[in-house]
Amino acid sequence: MESCSQHYEALRQTLQEHMPDKDLSVIEQAIAYAQEKHKAQKRKDGSPYIIHPLAVAQIVADMGLDTDAILGAILHDCIEDTDASFDDIAKRFGTVAAELVEGVTKLTRANFSSSEEQQMENLRKMFMAMSKDIRVVLIKIADRLHNMRTMQYQTPEKQIIKCRETMDVYAPLAHRLGMQKMKWELEDIALRYLDPAGYEDIMAYLKAHKEQDEAFMRAIQERITTRLTEMGIQGTIYGRIKHVYSIYRKMKQQGKSLEELYDIYAFRVVVDTIPDCYNVLGHVHDLFNLVPGRFKDYISTPKPNMYQSLHTTVIGKQGIPFEVQIRTWQMHETAEYGIAAHWKYKQGAGAGDEKDFEWVRRLLESQQDTDAEDYVNSLKIDMFDDEVFVFTPKGKIVSLPAGSTPIDFAYAIHSGVGNALVGAKVNARIVNIDAKLQNGDIVEIITSKTAKGPSRDWLNICQSNQARTKIKQWFKKEKREENVLHGKSSFELEMKRLLLPLPAAMDEELEKALLKKLSFDNWDDMYAAIGYGGLTAVKAVGRIRDDINKAIKAEKASQTPVRVAPEGEPEKQNRHAANGVIVEDIDSCMIKFSKCCTPVPGDAIVGYITKGFGVSIHRADCPNTAGIRDPRQAARWVRVRWDNVEEQPFETTLELDCLTRDGLLLDVAMVMTAARIRVKELYGKDMPGGHSVFTVRFEVKNIAELESVRNRLLNIRDVLGSRRGQN
Ligand code: MN
């Protein structure tokens, strides 16, 4: 059993080396606090629990991280396993340390084991995304490393799960963060449990060849050392066998047995300066034969994880090839500790945050490697804003666009789940279906067989195209009638807005041509498409607008003014004034002002003989007068003009296009009152995009008065435009 004081002594020594001037009392307080909190717990091997956080703190201290990170490591299991709270830790040891502990706790609670290969990248991304501070990741990797070192006390099932997870998530992360040493150790331990036979084979082989290997490495080391001494170059040379998992992987990849695998020796020459690196390289190539195609200069072109070294493979007299890596001490540090080495330099050089920034910048710039982008993507802790990673209740990971809601989640699972959605739980709590999902949330969709299907609002709530498409599909299929109605009204609104005639007022030829242009067989199909969102009304109208206008122009040019005088009858000058309008050629008839365009004296007008309701008066530019050009209806259109004798009120309508804001209705009402206009009706309607349309029905004497009112209305703030009503 390991003793606690032994661990603390080692930690204290490391810290004194790294930060000789630091007051260690806060770290001692944290240890005492963690010890007290964990006192009821034991490790699987029976030792006091505090051994674990101390060991993790030791690993973190070896990386050279700062005091906050060491505090975070000592306290890393306190929130998860004891009654310690974030607030309590923050009060005693500062917010930064408490946030680190909280970050580690979040990662501990998330489930990173998954058997699906394609999920691995997402898992790693989520891991990074969940840790807003890179130190959280480093502490978590240290935590995992110590747990791997004590893996023998776990059950066989747990061993497999943890080792798989280590291979899938922790080792690749260590690699991406440039921490070779930790990566190797994680991989080797994991391999021991995942393929014990394969691991043992390699170990046995290495053991059997130990003397031979050592003699070989000694000889090479001596040759290089001698040469460097001769040349007056300061350097340290290490020889080693590559780590077990890298040998294992090479065997698998190249399909070779251990005996056939030559490339297992690696030498490392560490020198003071970069010129020395290239010097040493020259001497190595002089001493041994170069294996072509194996030289790599990672000094001039660092790997994306900041790794720098010269690599070359050579063959000695024995005919055994081996790799030589040449680097400076600083490169060595970076190679061993990766991103963590950054803290070491920072503390040593006393540099500020600028160096932090510099590091990230360099990282982002070094994109030469093919997987650089991948690496950078996975490192973008804060820059990870476009994706969110959540779990199904069974632990499957789902990646969604940032800002996604339970609706997006449901449709990502299956459209059937989305269509039956009636509610959602996040982390076992009921939430609104428009709740924004956070990284690591466990999302559960509540469905019902009697669900009515998606609502149109969902189209505005959901973030993913997938959800949007599936919701639209549902509407397309399930709600044709409703779609036709919805679509028709938005289409007609748009047509009216542009003063175009409605399909009902068009002649057959034109209708056919327009439908063809729109690629629909009939209007209902097109309305349905607009209704479910496959097409917008603006787009549809935009596509036919020019054709309609052209048709109207052509008609106007080719046709003589409408005459209604029956053939053979002399033109009479009979006039009949009723309600201020004179209908030419007709003695006596009922006059009605059409509701669609509400003409007022001064407007150009035409008359239409209705069945049983006399003559209805339209403005000449009313879309419903398009039938005037239909020869079959020509007989029903009559010429009319205003009789200016009478002065009576005429009802008319204006539609105002406005930006939606409070109080606008009141402003409109005030203007009308000030103008002494009698208002019959006034209402507003919200339109998409923060717009609204106000409709005012009121009485005026003539076009002049109408225009004056219109100008006043247009002076109101946020009133963008106006048009004569057509309803
Ligand atoms: Mn732990």
Number of strands: 21
Shape: elongated
Helicity, in percent?
40-55%
The low-confidence parts are 345-384, 560-577
**CATH 4th-level superfamily of the largest domain:** Hypothetical protein af1432
- How many distinct helices? 29
Structural class: alpha+beta
Distance from first to last alpha carbon: 90 Å
CATH class of the largest domain: Mainly Alpha
Name the average pLDDT: 80
- Describe the biggest sheet? 6 strands, mixed
Which strand-content bin applies to the residues? 15-25%
Which features does this protein show?
Beta Polymerase, domain 2, 6-stranded mixed β-sheet, 29 helices, Ubiquitin-like (UB roll), 727 residues, 21 strands, alpha+beta, Hypothetical protein af1432, binds manganese (II) ion
Describe this structure in words.
The chain is of the alpha+beta class and 727 residues long. The chain folds into six domains: 4-153, Orthogonal Bundle (Hypothetical protein af1432); 202-346, Beta Polymerase, domain 2 (2-Layer Sandwich); 356-477, Ubiquitin-like (UB roll) (Roll); 479-559, no CATH class; 578-642, no CATH class; 650-724, Alpha-Beta Plaits, CATH 3.30.70. Helices cover 49% and strands 16% of the residues. The protein contains 29 helices and 21 strands. The strands form five sheets. Strands 1, 2, 3, 4, 5 and 6 form a six-stranded mixed sheet that branches. Strands 12-13-17-15-16-14 form a six-stranded mixed sheet, with no helix packed on it. A four-stranded antiparallel sheet has the order 19-20-18-21, covered by helices on one side. A hairpin with a 2-residue loop joins strand 9 and strand 10 (429-431). The radius of gyration is 41 Å and the shape is elongated. The termini are far apart. The model is unreliable at 345-384 and 560-577 (pLDDT under 50).
